[in-house]
TrEMBL record:
Organism of origin: Sorangium cellulosum (Polyangium cellulosum)
Gene3D superfamilies the record matches: von Willebrand factor, type A domain (3.40.50.410)
Pro residues composition-biased segments: 59-68
Start and end residues of each stretch annotated as Disordered: 30-74
Keywords: Signal
InterPro entries named among the record's database cross-references: VWF_A (IPR002035), vWFA_dom_sf (IPR036465)
Keyword Signal: yes
Protein name as catalogued: VWFA domain-containing protein
Lineage, opening ranks: Bacteria, Pseudomonadati, Myxococcota, Polyangia, Polyangiales
Signal peptide: 1-32
Keyword field contains Signal: yes
Domain VWFA: 88-321
Top-rank lineage group of the source organism: Bacteria
Length: 397
């Protein structure tokens, strides 16, 4: 299995407080003996003592770790878990000139979209792989319709325990998507150019296409009033600002057919395209609906695309999309040797065993979160997943 689809989410296979500290990403110095020897938790004795084989300090050895559950987690073994088949979430971000429109006193539309994408990458960490492209790319005033391109290749998300400041996936994603919007909206040409790259990615891939307007930049396009962008946006004092047909230029006519076709080609390769329309795109609801239908991601009722009227809600919309493809299953590298002695913690909070609203075994080596626990994970509100054995499994009452 490739490293982008399978990687470790927690340091495990270690004993005592040091193992807990490493898995949580805190300093090992937190495990230094404070002179107090704490008794094991009630019911936690089974498996709590290691045999005296010379590999671990004896109970009277002051250099040894404190009792295994001293940090609050019952058990003496934190299992190494792997995120298998993490989905590839590939952002295709509209960086056309209209994305410079102010969305708040200090931020443009593009700023707000980029910030929401960065937050999602940070919150979901190792649950996803992430990549990004912008469109157009390297556009100028004289060449506003250059196709977009990739600015961040698909990369595994940050591990739960974090990483070196400035070198994390989140930090690099943020830097790579720092673009000054300019030019038109060459959606079809961009998606066509990206198709070979996206099709070559292993595992499940989805595209999140965020835009504030309709696609254009088709140099061969001519259009009547219904497909003329100035008319659509009610900025035309004449019957048809794109007349005579064919003289409107690449930014004048809506590039509906080629864009829908480009999305349909991605969907035919198993790459679903989620269309997100932010404020500014309301004039183009019908074409965004067609794009969502072609991408295989239409919602049950119109609008079929993900319509965002308030950019304050964009983060929750992106989380909803990601939650459709994020898995709540964890493979254990070192499954527990004994049944009924395993517990699951989300951010050190116990999740009871419950086949409907907690967790269960999918196989002897796969733990699956369900119900509220799964939704909490998918929402990006979990900083650490720990699977620990050595104490009786806590069952929901």
């Amino acid at each position: 299995m490739n490293t982008a689809a399978k990687r470790r989410a927690s340091v495990g296979g270690v004993l005592g407080c040091l193992g807990v500290a490493l898995a949580l990403g805190v300093a090992p110095s937190a495990c230094e003996d404070d002179g107090e020897r704490r008794p094991p938790r009630s019911g936690g004795g089974q498996g709590a003592q290691e045999p005296d084989d010379g590999l671990f300090p004896g109970p009277e050895d002051p250099s040894g770790p404190p009792p295994a559950d001293a940090d609050g987690l019952c058990g003496n073994r934190i299992h190494e878990v792997e995120i298998t088949d993490a989905p590839n979430i590939y952002f295709v971000l509209d960086a056309s000139g209209s994305m410079l429109s102010p969305a708040s006193s200090r931020a443009t539309r593009y700023d707000r979209v980029r910030d929401a994408a960065v937050d999602l990458v940070s919150n979901l960490g190792p649950l996803i792989n992430v990549g990004a492209a912008v469109f157009p790319l390297d556009a100028t005033v004289d060449a506003p319709c250059r196709p977009g391109g990739e600015v961040f290749p698909v990369t595994p998300g940050d591990p739960f325990a974090g990483g070196e400041e400035g070198r994390t996936t989140t930090a690099r994603f943020r830097a790579a998507t720092r673009i000054e919007p300019i030019g038109g909206t060459p959606t079809a040409a961009t998606l066509t150019a990206l198709t070979p790259t996206l099709a070559a990615l292993p595992g499940k891939t989805i595209v999140v296409l965020a835009t504030d307007g309709g696609p254009n930049c088709n140099s061969a396009a001519g259009c009547d009033a219904e497909e003329c962008i100035a008319n659509i946006e009610q900025q035309c004092p004449e019957e048809n600002c794109c007349a005579p047909r064919g003289l409107s230029g690449p930014e004048g006519c809506l590039d509906r057919d080629d864009t829908v076709a480009a999305i349909a080609r991605l969907a035919a390769r198993g790459i679903e395209v989620y269309v997100v329309g932010i404020p500014g795109s309301e004039f183009y609801g019908d074409v965004l609906d067609q794009m969502a239908l072609a991408g295989g991601t239409a919602q049950f009722v119109s609008p079929f695309y993900f319509k965002v009227d308030d950019l304050d809600t964009l983060g929750s919309v992106l989380a909803k999309i990601a939650g459709i493809v994020v898995s709540c299953e964890f493979d254990l590298v070192d499954p527990p040797p004994e049944d009924g002695q395993t517990n699951v913690y989300l951010d050190r909070e116990l999740v009871p065993y419950n086949p409907e609203n907690g967790w269960r075994w999918r196989s002897p080596a796969i733990v699956e979160l369900l119900g509220d626990a799964c939704q909490k994970l998918k929402s990006g509100r979990v900083g650490q997943v720990q699977i620990v054995s050595g104490c009786p499994t806590e069952v929901a009452r």
